[in-house]
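REVIEWER CHECKLIST
Item 1: Sequence provided? yes
Item 2: Single chain? yes
Item 3: Sequence as submitted:
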Amino acid sequence: MSDDVYAKLRWSAMQSALLLLCVQDFAASILRYTLNLTPLNDEALAEIKAACVLNLKNTSTSGVSINEEAALIGQTIEKFENCIKFIIQKASEI
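Item 4: Structure as written out by the authors:
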């Protein structure tokens, strides 16, 4: 396997892992809200999303340069926000 292919696979794996952690964090936060019988309105969802993004920004990776880490986290935040936007859109259709 070439170094370029290996680097792309590694990057995708790291990004997927970070994205999965964000989605798990988001789901757990929604469950906490609902178990506490707290209304889950637009404001609450925005608060949860912001907390998840903050948690991601505070994540650190190993084995990559600081510039690569910044790019990885930035791209993951963008994908996470798109994912949450899609989830909220689909949930509002129910």
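Item 5: Key structural point noted by reviewer: Helices lie at 3-35, 42-57, 66-93.
Item 6: Recommendation: ____
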